[in-house]
Amino acid sequence: MPFTLNGANTMQTFGLADPLLMKEWNLKIVREFIGNVGEQPIDGYPILGSDNKWYHSLQRIVDQNRSQNIITILCPFGWVNSNGEQILLAGLNPSEQSFYIAYKAKMKEIAEHFKDQTDVWIQVWNEPYHWNNENGYTHERWLRDMSEMVDNLRWVNGFHNLIIVPGNEMGQSESAILSHGKKLTEKRFNIAFDLHAYEKWLVNTNEDQLKERLASIKSNNIPFIFGEVGVQNVGDVMEVNHFLNAAKSYGVPVLGWLWVQNSQYNNALLNEQGEPNSSPSNNHWGEVYKNFLR
C-alpha cells in the first residue's frame, strides 16, 4: 500500500486546535478554512472582524501545525463585505465577483508572507462554479480564471510553494482538469488539483467504479488530492468506505471534513470530549476516518 499524506479540514482561524490530538490521529496535512479573506490577519495578534468574529493569524496556525510536522493548505472559503455579511465562495464564478480584485490583492499578500515556508500550500479558491455547470460555466472559463489566480500568486517574487487548483462543479468534477489541466500547467510549475468527494463520488457508486475513475485521472499524470470528503452535504448521510478504500489503493491524499468537536454535526470528526464522533446517525464517521488515517 503506498504511503500517502492524509489529513483533515480545520477551522483554526476561530481558535487553535489541540496539536497533540492531531498527532494522535496521524494528520499529515490540514486544509485551513479562511472564511473572511479580506480581514484575515496573516501574522500577529487575533483581530475582531467586521462580522464580529475573532480571527487568529495564519502564521500562528502554521507554526502550531509545523510543530507536529503537519503541512498547511491555506484555503479561502469566504469574503466579508463592508456590511459585515459573509459571501461564501462555493458555487461562484470567481472573476465575476465584485470583490475579485481586492481578493487577488489579499491572496498576493498571503503568498508574499509565506513564500519561504515550503510546508505552506495555497489554494486559489474553494469549490468554484455551479454544481451542474450552469450560470455560464465553460471549461474555457475555468482555465481563464484558474490561470489568472495561479499567475497572481506566481507574480510574487520567490513564491515557489505548491498551488492547489480546484475542479469544476463545486470541486466534485474532474472534467475541467482532464480537458484543460495540461494547458494550465504547461508553462507553470508546482501545481496540484483538488477534488471533493460528496454526492458525485459517493452516491450510486461502488469501489470498482471509483477505482476506474481514479485510474483515468492518474493515467494523465495529473497530481491531485481530495481536499474534502464527508458523510453529508446537501442530502442524507452517505456511505464513504468504498471511496476511502479506492483512494487508499491508489495512494491519493484525502482530507476529511471536518476537524471540529460537535456531536450534533454529522460531518464532525470529534465529539465534545475529543473522541471520534461516531454513531449510527453519521455512519460512524469519526471512527471510520480515524481508522483510515492509521
What is the CA-CA span between the terminal residues?
12 Å
Q: Can you tell me the CATH architecture?
A: Alpha-Beta Barrel
Oligomer class: single chain
What CATH calls the topology is: TIM Barrel
Give me the Rg, rounded.
18 Å
The CATH superfamily turns out to be Glycosidases
Counting helices, strands and paired strands, the structural category is alpha/beta
SS element count, helices = 9
Low-confidence spans: pLDDT under 50, at least 5 residues?
none
Strand content: 15-25%
Mean pLDDT: 97
Proportion of helical residues: 25-40%
Order of strands, widest sheet: 1-2-5-8-9-10-11-12
Task: Characterize the largest beta sheet: strand count, sense, and whether it forms a barrel.
Answer: 8 strands, parallel, barrel
- Global geometry: globular
Which CATH class? Answer: Alpha Beta
User: Into how many domains do the coordinates divide?
Assistant: 1
Q: From N to C, what is the helix and strand string?
A: EHEEEHEEEHEHEHEHHEHEH
How many beta-strand elements? 12
